[in-house]
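Obj: model holo form, ligand = NDP.
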Amino acid sequence: AEQENFLSDLTGSFSSPCAENPTVAVMEAAYQHQGIPARYINCDVGKEQLEQAVAGAKAMGWRGFNCSIPNKQAIIEYIDELGTSAKVIGAVNCVIIRDGKLTGENTDGKGFVEALSEQIDVKGKTLALLGAGGAARAIAVESALAGATEITIINRDKKKGQELVDLINDNTKAKATFKAWTPGLRIDPLPDILVNATSVGLDDADALPDIDTESLESSLFVADVIPNPPQTALLRKAADKGCRTLNGLNMLVNQGALNLTYWFDKEADKEPMRKVLQKLFTG
Ligand code: NDP
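Output (holo structure tokens):
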């Protein structure tokens, strides 16, 4: 008879707080569906315990782990090599362990560009981004590296917006400019792609970023980072105007798929992951 194998491949996440992070459910659904003998362990680890947690993961032969709040920057100190975009963004949310060597990647922007590429190629396109926080930073850098030509950063806080503009101009071939966010802002001139990368809309299906939605036209592609609820007020308005849209749930699914590929060198089947998130987010 064939020998039973009681040893799982280990993966997981280091963040704090973490009780509401659904990634464990997403990843374990994928492992089960694809017959990968692996587990994903959601660990409450803050900055104080991060060094020891990383040493523990290495000692236990983990394949890799995700990092979230408050560890996305702090983890860099313990990593041997950074992916191109992670280096520019200055934040890591996915770590791969191979032969005791740690590589850090940032999948926030990659998940976005990949989800987008199923509908529109970002290469040669112009983007306008609402927001200049972590999500905006990752999306701007990854879109620029993927060949976006012009990126307009629209943000309330000018300093943060200008910092992101400088980051893009100093590190990529894209041309970035800052636009101050005045109430009821008209999106003019219209870019090819408009992205809401603010937190407006999270857990509130009626919250709309303070822009003039009458300025949206059907030629525009509109994406939203908000995963929950997936159909945000912005995306509904955009769809009414005839725009093509992409929601934040798809971005999140692509991040799970990237985890699986980085850790197991396998293409991910996104359907079971999407199902888990859809069920969690629609109750
Ligand atoms: P940050 O706190 O780093 O940034 C928040 C940004 O939103 C800032 O630019 C802030 O502007 C802006 N903002 C907040 N409230 C308003 C408002 N009322 N009007 C205009 N601008 C506003 O957050 P993150 O970038 O980390 O996350 C943003 C969102 O992205 C979250 O909701 C998160 O759920 C989502 N996200 C989704 C992912 C996915 O895979 N789908 C991945 C990562 C994040 P200012 O600087 O002026 O304060």
